[in-house]
Amino acid sequence: MSSLKSTFVLLLLAISLTECSTAKRIDALKPLPSDDAPMVFTTKTSFVNMPLEISLKEIENQLNKTLNGQIYNDDNLNDDNSEMKITKTAPIKLIEKDGKIQSILPLKIWSRFKYGTDFMGMNDTREINLNGTIILNSDVHLSNWKMTTTSKIEDFSWSESPTIVVAGRNVPITYIINPTLSIFKAKIAKKIDDAIEKTCDFKPYVLDVLEKMSTPFLTSEMYQAWFKLIPMEVYVTDAKIVQSKINMDLGLKCNMQTMVGQQPKSDFSREAIAFKPVTKVPDKVTANVAAISTYESAGKIITANFQGKEFVSGSRKIVVQNVGLWHRDSKIIIALDMTGSINGTIYLSGIPNYNAVTKEIFFDQMDYVLSTKGLLTKTANWLLQGMILKKIQENCRYSIKGNLEEGKKNLLPYLSNYSPMKGVFVNGSLNDFEFEKMEVTDKAMIAFITATGKMNVKIDGMD
Hints:
The protein has helices at 2-22, 56-66, 174-199, 203-213, 295-306, 370-379, 386-395, 401-411, and strands at 24-27, 46-55, 70-74, 82-88, 93-97, 100-116, 123-143, 146-158, 163-166, 169-172, 217-220, 225-236, 240-242, 245-260, 274-277, 285-294, 311-313, 316-328, 331-340, 342-355, 360-368, 397-399, 418-421, 424-430, 434-440, 444-459. By secondary structure, the protein is an alpha+beta fold. It has a domain at 57-199: Super Roll (Bactericidal permeability-increasing protein, domain 1). The model is unreliable at 1-22 (pLDDT under 50). The chain is built from eight helices and 26 strands. α2 (56-66) crosses α3. A hairpin with a 6-residue loop joins β6 (100-116) and β7 (123-143). The longest helix is centred in the middle third of the chain and has 26 residues, at 174-199.
């Protein structure tokens, strides 16, 4: 009986030893993340050049919407012996002439004037109706993002010479009407200048465009990467009229970010953007983008690299089921949950780096953390072999090439006749992204990349 009992004990021991040799459990000490401080990193500002082009036809359309019907009314006969009402009879035409705007206004003028002498009541009044055209020349300025003009009436002509009947005779009265119009030249010109200033306030349109551009949008569905633009300052040069178009250069100083994970919130503030006049704006786009990868999202990507792969050493093998990452002491801790000959979690540490050829984030100087190494020495020394570590290291990487290419691809529609609002069109080009440096924070790994390009904005056909 005792012999049978001994045999049974030895059998259980053999089974136990067999199990230990095929699947061992490791319980390494988990290196805790660094403190839970907010993510803070320094970004280089980007500069976007946006030449703005507005056709005179567009300003003409807007001006005709603003100036409609009666545009002048003087109903006081006693101050200068005349009354006058001026009504626009046809659309105003704008043309370029010697770097200025020439306005052609078809008008209908009703006038009442008093002539004669007040001595013994010997005076009379007459009403006349005139059809004619006034021509103004305007110098163009841009002040506080409003296009302003200084206009002068150069000429006015009548469809037919105005006359009145006095004592049965047609008496020409052009000599009376023209001096009367001369009195109102400045008033009529100011009316046109006020209408142009009201029509050509570009600041709201620029802010509307920036607000649209500042809304984060998805650049990579696979990586759940979002692009975000944060405007800071806007610059503008003086307006110039060239080939019937008003041209000015806009410059945008901003920050650019790509965020991996959930859609970031838009924190656009119209009041926070500074507008500054300048004499010259650089003629290219310089984009400095902070590509932010959270440790959670990077872990998911690297976990996918290990799917379907076995790491073999002789008769032993392991399969990595899940990868976790976090930051500690300027390094990245990589936690590998594994099954197979060993069950449990091992911890590696490494320094994130970037391969400019393959466009991959990888981990340099990778090694087991001390607690893991000490435990593996006792339980699975074979896992410490350089070959296994090298194979693991090869899979602890993820490419941002597709992210960059897809990001550029998704940005291109915003540079190809993109219309953030009716009548505003954005066009441009973007060169390839180039890697600059890597930074690690307690919250994420950040790849800083740069790109250059060109952009222009055209306003044509606004409501």
